[in-house]
Amino acid sequence: MQARIAIVDDHALFLDGVVGLLQDVPELGEVVPFLSGLDLLTALSQGAPFDLIVTDLTMKDLNGLALISALRSKAPGVPVLVLSASADTAMRANAESVGAVGFLHKSVGKAELVEALQLHLTEGQADKKSRPDDAVLAQPQLGPRQLSVLALLAEGASNREIADRLFISENTVKTHLKAIFRELDAHTRTAVVQRARELALI
């Protein structure tokens, strides 16, 4: 079966360039672009399968660390490789601590990028074969919209401000908050934000 690679980056020009570059390497399989981590999570929730996920770290709607953390439950066993313009060693360590299998700088050449993708595709497929079908990593089950609400909550936004920015009703915000509080086992806004940061969800 042909491999499928998801590429996540909110810079459209860069994303188009990487996808075009990789589509010239047919042995990598299908390359699917996403302009946001939320779009990828939505695709996964709808059953889209991927063998490797490549993501940037600095993105507007959902940062890369939060995405990688969410993928531990949304796509367990699928390796996540970071492709970032940052050379910050602390950021790299943070990415690896939440589950990234590797870190590449965006200045990397085509040959090195392709080699890294092939390596992690092979390792990911081997890991899937050795992984029990019912293995599930303990991680809060938050959907894409709930992650967006959580991110705005961490910025100090009120329920009304969250509703306005996400174009949803205030009652819907309250429903999402109840689910977030339950999943993170927290009872106050401060506690839920602190817990989310501990889990690298924000």
TrEMBL record:
<dbReference type="InterPro" id="IPR016032">
    <property type="entry name" value="Sig_transdc_resp-reg_C-effctor"/>
</dbReference>
<dbReference type="InterPro" id="IPR001789">
    <property type="entry name" value="Sig_transdc_resp-reg_receiver"/>
</dbReference>
<feature type="domain" description="Response regulatory">
    <location>
        <begin position="4"/>
        <end position="121"/>
    </location>
</feature>
<dbReference type="Pfam" id="PF00072">
    <property type="entry name" value="Response_reg"/>
</dbReference>
<dbReference type="GO" id="GO:0000160">
    <property type="term" value="P:phosphorelay signal transduction system"/>
</dbReference>
<dbReference type="InterPro" id="IPR058245">
    <property type="entry name" value="NreC/VraR/RcsB-like_REC"/>
</dbReference>
<dbReference type="InterPro" id="IPR051015">
    <property type="entry name" value="EvgA-like"/>
</dbReference>
<dbReference type="GO" id="GO:0003677">
    <property type="term" value="F:DNA binding"/>
</dbReference>
<dbReference type="InterPro" id="IPR036388">
    <property type="entry name" value="WH-like_DNA-bd_sf"/>
</dbReference>
<keyword id="KW-0238">DNA-binding</keyword>
<feature type="domain" description="HTH luxR-type">
    <location>
        <begin position="135"/>
        <end position="200"/>
    </location>
</feature>
<feature type="modified residue" description="4-aspartylphosphate">
    <location>
        <position position="56"/>
    </location>
</feature>
<keyword id="KW-0597">Phosphoprotein</keyword>
<dbReference type="Pfam" id="PF00196">
    <property type="entry name" value="GerE"/>
</dbReference>
<dbReference type="InterPro" id="IPR011006">
    <property type="entry name" value="CheY-like_superfamily"/>
</dbReference>
<dbReference type="InterPro" id="IPR000792">
    <property type="entry name" value="Tscrpt_reg_LuxR_C"/>
</dbReference>
<protein>
    <submittedName>
        <fullName>Transcriptional regulatory protein DegU</fullName>
    </submittedName>
</protein>
<dbReference type="GO" id="GO:0006355">
    <property type="term" value="P:regulation of DNA-templated transcription"/>
</dbReference>
